[in-house]
Write a structure and sequence with these properties.
single chain, alpha/beta, Rossmann fold, 5-stranded parallel sheet, globular
Amino acid sequence: MEKDLICIAGTMGVGKTTTCRALQGMLPGCVFLDGDWCWDARPFLVNEETQALVIRNIAFLLRGFVDCTAYKTVLFCWVLHERDILEQILRTMGPGGYRLHVLSLICAPEALEKRLGADVQAGLRAPEVLSRSLERLPAYAALGWPLLDTTELSPREAAKLIYQGLAEGKL
């Protein structure tokens, strides 16, 4: 049975995780993987070794979910600001067993500043996340994947639009 593998990209603060949680509740037999869960380390180190490790971790889990008969839909979110990152994951997973759906969440820079600023104030994120997130925001338009602007949307509203796009074959 071929499954739906839904990959949702977006910079930090656009609402990937909360939107995916809402979408997961709408999709029957859905398992959800947030790529950040595969790279939750202190200290957070970005180098060739750690990048390769996280790609292998994500691919391993996604392949396991695709191969498991208990699930109909595999939902995955991560920053994915470069097309090659997703391509590496898919190559590492190996072919077959899923229909791929990819989209990026974006929002206005002002909304991103407000959302991330609140997280920084609450101690949930480091202050430097804002500049990194704003720098990455323009990259998503260049990826060629469908875009969903979450500036004026709640996570539930964004999830409903994604669900509708899947049902209509637009994603």
